[in-house]
Amino acid sequence: MSPAAPCPRREGHAGVSRRTLDPRRCPHWLGAIIALSLLGAALAAGCGGAAATGEPSRPAPSAATASARAASAPTIAGGTQPGVSAAPPASAGPPRPTIVQTPIPFGTRRKAEMTEYAVRHYGLHTYRLIAPHVIVIHYTETPDFQSTFNTFAPDVPDSELHELPGTCAHFVIDRHGVIRQLVPLGIMCRHTVGLNWTAIGIEHVGYSDGEVLADRAQIGASLKLVRWLRCRFHIGLSDVIGHNESLSSPYHHERVAALRTQTHSDFNHADMQVYRSRLRAAGGC
After folding, report:
1. Pairwise CA distance, residues 145 & 181, whole Å
2. Which pLDDT score, from 0 to 100, does residue 264 have?
3. 222 pLDDT more than 60
4. What DSSP string describes 13-68?
5. Under DSSP, is residue 134 helix (H, G, I), strand (E, B) or coil?
6. Closest CA to 168 of 275, 59, 13
7. pTM for this one?
8. What's the N-to-C CA distance of the chain in angstroms?
9. pLDDT in tens, 240-278
10. Other CB atoms closer than 10 Å to residue 64's CB: what's the count?
11. Is the alpha carbon torsion for 237, 241, 247, 248 positive or negative?
12. Euclidean distance between CA atoms 124 and 120, whole angstroms
């Protein structure tokens, strides 16, 4: 990205303000979920639990809940890279919205860098996103889609954390409500510290939560996309979160101690309560 190019709010963006939250230590069971998150997909080609229908609450799950999640999560023995598809079989549900394919370069080198990142941060030897459990909502802090694409396309170290591969999101929704897919759903993207191993990232062109929520075309497209994804992967309503809610996700896991409280300010809890209420009203699966 050239120095003058604007930079979206995402993992590695130096210009965002961070919300100070109490440190959160990853529960012991979460390591099991991550380890388990790779083999069951080959056996069950499934997803991480039934979709929720009520308004979300975010206390840490009980041991029984954690055990149930671990039992249903896909796994792989030994932490080796799986040779299975990330996407479960198609099932009945809401229609797939119109999605324009606008892929960023994600070749062999970037995949290798994504694997190295996953090893450092999650202990996973893969670049693959398998049976995602979370959808993270962001806004870009850019004026249009093209400037957002120009930020994500280059595979260069980010300006905040100085890591590779370059940051990205799976989808970007522009101000006209056009949904563009930048990265296949079977590949991890760097968009949210602690959740990239299991999260689909969706960016919205704009400069604030309120701006996106007030844009009928954009928010309408967003709800259609998220409803379709949520039903396709059996992701609970409470696991559709804003970037600012990342630390409270039960799936948050970060091996690098200095990053365990790192988050960004886009889509805070109050605004996501509005978003999830609209998502619930849009219909279930």
Report:
1. 11
2. 97
3. yes
4. -TTSPPPP----PPPHHHHHHHHHTTTHHHHH---SSPPP-S----PPPPHHHHHH
5. strand
6. 13
7. 0.73
8. 39
9. 999 999 999 999 999 999 999 999 999 999 999 999 999
10. 8
11. negative
12. 8
Interhelix angle 269-282/216-233, nearest 10 degrees: 70
User: pLDDT per residue over 111-123, tens digit each?
Assistant: 999 999 999 999 9
The position carrying tokens 């191993």 is: 197
Q: Is beta strand 171-173 parallel, antiparallel or unpaired with respect to 179-181?
A: antiparallel
Which tokens in the block code for residue 258?
């200095």
Query: What are the tokens at 192?
Result: 């949210």
Cα–chain-centroid distance for residue 56?
17
Q: d(Cα 52, Cα 86) in Å, to the nearest integer?
A: 22
Under a CB-based contact definition with an 8 Å cutoff, are residues 266 and 138 in contact? yes
- Cα(143)–Cα(161) distance, rounded to whole angstroms? 24
| Residue 97 DSSP class | P
- The DSSP secondary-structure symbol of 155 reads -
Asked if 79 contacts 123 with a C-beta cutoff of 8 angstroms, the reply is yes
What tokens appear for 228 in the block?
């379709």
In this model, does residue 205 exceed pLDDT 90? yes
CA–CA dist 254, 89 (Å, integer): 30
